[in-house]
Design brief:
Strand order of the largest sheet of chain A: 16-13-14-15-28-27-26-20-24
Distance between the termini of chain A: 70 Å
GO molecular function (chains A, B): 3'-5' exonuclease activity; DNA binding; DNA-directed DNA polymerase activity
Number of strands of chain A: 28
Helix content of chain A: 10-25%
Subunit structure (chains A, B): Forms a ring-shaped head-to-tail homodimer around DNA.
Radius of gyration of chain A: 25 Å
Largest interface: A-B, 32 and 32 residues
Mean pLDDT of chain A: 94
CATH superfamily of the largest domain in chain A: DNA Polymerase III, subunit A, domain 2
Main location (chains A, B): cytoplasm
Shape of chain A: elongated
Number of helices of chain A: 6
CATH architecture of the largest domain in chain A: Roll
Keywords (chains A, B): Cytoplasm, DNA replication, DNA-binding, DNA-directed DNA polymerase, Nucleotidyltransferase, Transferase
Protein name (chains A, B): Beta sliding clamp
Oligomer: homodimer
CATH topology of the largest domain in chain A: DNA Polymerase III, Chain A, domain 2
Low-confidence stretches of chain A: none
Chain lengths: 378, 378
């Protein structure tokens, strides 16, 4: 096995594949990265058995040669040192060679690394998903679906199903929903000509977070395939496979109040910065709680009180404030998380009393919904 | 006590003074920052009893008004929350007020923080150094003296004196020396008209590291005053006081070999990058050791061997290589630390055999000296 590759190409692929490789794994060979060399190109593979990632570097693409002097073969290389080695090599090209004794040589300029490899035959084969029914959406849309929901998954293993994001495809609508039972984030997008429907697909939040780091912010399509226990995201040169979570995702639609008693419209950044300041004194406390009180003349007051330290209060002028007077307490962190993912200038917030969950949506976009359960204060 | 201050000015001063404030201190009031308000300006003070820092903001400077509406007085404010509050306030100015009950109010725009303050009378008085004999050097020179030596102090408390930098002023020469007994870094600069001499001043490495973060990279002078147990660095608006370490600093001049058997001249970056690569496989081992071997034709070979992982070798062409053949092993980390602080293109390295310390100096500057004790390998 031998090839000479453009170092920049190799760095990018190695970085992507490393996101699936853990140094703590029960299967020793999974601490390694598989390099598979074919005349048409190089495939790098990593897996921690939850996530598996393949990155492909074609030998030639659009007339540009990425890989040369190819002798076919495969090897597994220790992933711990490989990214640093590749990143710090002196020249623009890297030669990688493996001999029949599994000795790997990496050369660039005058630098030569000799590493002990492992037999690629021992690396687990990734399942190839055989489903004809796939869904295709632009990469940047997928990234925003992930970003606007994944932060709300539970980090507690007490209800494992809530550590995932529920992905549904129904009535030509793709929706992502996450909740840790104290808050909920959901976003939906229309999909044209979807040939399939599914409703109980739950992808671990960690998988989607890693996927989001790898995907470039382009309009190029991502193909999504789903089976009983796995989901595949595939772009031109990337193959990202994640296991699904077992169990039934709870029905969340009934959590969302249908009526509201107090409605306000406010500039997103004004509210975000005010809540950020109000949370400063309560930062270290478990329930970083702030209080929102409606005042007359389209004014809200945001306050927070930490008896040992002090008190903070700030008024925010809103664009519109209608309905019942309200005094409600909630987690500043949840509110900041929700407001930060909303890329719109203005939001609408709908309350149904101090003890009921409230809803935040962009004023001009009903497809995003953030729900927060208030905190009882006495 | 009351004043209105430009927020940017306050942020900068608070950041500087915070470097002396520790949340873990035996004296509770030292978790606070003292604010002293006079008609001519505001002084902020912090101290962890090792280091004390005062930052002064004049009410007016060069026709620009920094502080207004001044009512004199003093208060101690909880330092833990103060920097974040100041940084996140909405407006360009901040109003700070303390009432006789030690309640502090911070206002900016519509935001208002009410904090519990402490009595400024309870804050320890900083000793005012009364020495007429001071030394003045440009700030950027002081910064480079610190940067080129402080990394070599010992981090072990077994010989506390070695955790400091030895500062000497003799024969119109100011010198900084640090050693952890495995390596030594020293730098000297000529000083004009020094009225004082001292040789056993040892400043904690941590103090100099913090000082270096605060000092701006300018040619403005720093005044240095020394007493038996303290050293003061003073710029126009900054007063930085550190305790000195007790004990006698070891005589280091006899460590430095006077003769050499192998001398080489090499490009600093070439050697730095080669050693960086050679150290990659040994990164996790305690003695990240690399081996340097002289070859013919002005070539060095740098190698490193980690039996479990693999081997790395790289040749470096030097500018000149004279004297005995050599094969020597040393800590890659020490070599990288030394080479990184040398701001010159080329270095001269003088060896006196594989078991003796060797010296690295810039080819064109004898005032910087880095010494490394080799590692015995069998």
């Amino acid at each position: 096995m031998k090839f000479i590759i453009q170092r920049e190409q190799l760095i990018a692929s190695v970085q992507d594949v490393m996101k699936a490789i853990s140094s703590r794994t029960a299967i020793p060979i999974l601490t390694g990265m598989k390099i598979d060399v074919r005349h048409h190109g190089i495939t790098l593979t990593g897996s921690d058995s939850d996530i598996s990632i393949e990155s492909y570097i074609p030998a030639e693409e659009a007339g540009i040669v990425h890989v040369e002097n190819i002798e076919e073969g495969s090897i597994v290389i220790q992933a711990r040192y490989f990214p640093d080695i590749v990143r710090k090599l002196p020249e623009k090209t890297v030669e990688i060679e493996a001999d029949p004794n599994l000795k790997v040589t990496i050369r660039s300029g005058k630098a030569e690394f000799n590493l002990n490899g492992q037999d690629a035959e021992e690396f687990p084969h990734l399942p190839k998903l055989q489903t004809e029914n796939s869904l295709s959406i632009p990469t940047d849309i997928l990234k925003s679906l992930i970003r606007q929901t994944v932060f709300a998954v539970s980090t507690m293993e007490t209800r494992p199903i809530l550590t995932g994001v529920n992905i549904k495809l129904e009535n030509n609508t793709l929706s992502f929903t996450a909740t840790d039972s104290h808050r909920l984030a959901s976003r939906e997008v229309p999909v044209n000509n979807a040939e399939i429907e599914f409703s109980n697909v739950v992808v671990p939040g960690k998988s989607l977070t890693e996927l989001n780091k790898i995907l470039a912010d382009t309009e190029e399509p991502v193909e999504i395939n789903v089976t009983n226990n796995q989901i595949l995201f595939r772009t031109k040169h990337l193959y990202f496979l994640s296991r699904l979570l077992d169990g039934n995702y709870p029905e969340t639609s009934r959590l969302i109040p249908e009526q509201s008693k107090t409605v306000l419209y406010v500039n997103t950044k004004d509210l975000l910065h005010t809540i950020d300041r109000a949370s400063l004194l309560a930062k270290d406390e478990r329930n970083n709680v702030v209080k929102l009180t409606t005042k007359s003349n389209q004014v809200l007051e945001i306050t927070s009180n930490s008896p040992e330290i002090g008190r903070v209060a700030e008024e925010v002028t809103v664009q519109s404030l209608e309905g019942e007077e309200l005094r409600i307490s909630f987690s500043a962190k949840y509110m900041l998380d929700a407001l930060k993912t909303i890329d719109y200038d203005d939001v609408k917030i709908e309350f149904t009393g101090a003890m009921r969950p409230f809803i935040i949506r962009p004023t001009d976009d009903q497809s995003i919904l953030q729900l927060i359960v208030p905190v009882r204060t006495y």
